[in-house]
Amino acid sequence: MDTSLIASVVAATLVAGTPLIIVAIGELVTERAGVLNLGAEGMMAVGAVAAFATAHAGANPWLAAAMGMAAGAAMALLFGYLTLTMQANQVASGLALAIFGVGLAAFLGKPYESAPLPAVPPLHIPLLGELPLIGPALFHHQALVYLSWLLVAFTVWFLDRSRAGLVLRAVGESPSAAHAVGYPVLAIRYAAAAFGGAMAGLGGAFLSVFYTPLWSEGMVAGRGWIALALVVFATWRPLRVMLGAYLFGGVLVSQLFVQGAGLRIEVPAQLLSALPYLATIAVLVLISRNPATIRLNSPASLGRAFRPER
Length: 310
Description:
This is ABC transporter permease. By secondary structure, the protein is an all-alpha fold. 70% of the residues lie in helices and 0% in strands.
């Protein structure tokens, strides 16, 4: 395998893993506050169509990404109202949000099918971009790829070093104790849910505006579910989320490079397309064999309703 092909595989892996990182980090913060939102697929889809519609109207890609974040956050706040205020079951509400979001995005996106957008050019990084092998692999990407790295670094600092992050973790571990100390548990959980929704919307906007600048029904293609699995796979640690996202991103693009390289393999194309989802199931099965691994960093109150005493 020549160096140019290696650089292409690495570059494609980084790009494919970017939306997974963004969405999974948002879900990780949400879950560290004790809120289990399984609606990432629907929030990504709504964010994708909102961003595409904004860009199609002539707005710049960053405004489109902001609209995608706003749409995802609005969906998350709807989920928050149902589960945090009305005390609905979080698992059922999250699944309903995923189904509703995918259907709503398909309906709203009908006028935009087969209407491509101009491609967003990658950043030009002097000197680093000219390095052999490393330059094309790491330093010829769109800005959101690098912002996803900053997002991971910020989340590590926020959860482990900042006072606000420690409060959020305390709410996820024991909302009753946090409430007794005087922290607004529901407000913190609403903020965490809104952040997770905004990140899901940004992940969807990356797909429709930056990654493949077009809209098509079903373009999220299960990435929201993979992001949810990544949080468990990473045992609620941000750096492991990044590692897992690139692992799944590599599996996602491997089928394309295997076919593009002209390798003769007796494997159906449909099976190659299913590899990321098979890998997700395999990882979850392996982790589930050791309950202690899951409990290592899992918030103690994850998915449990909390009603503050008046």
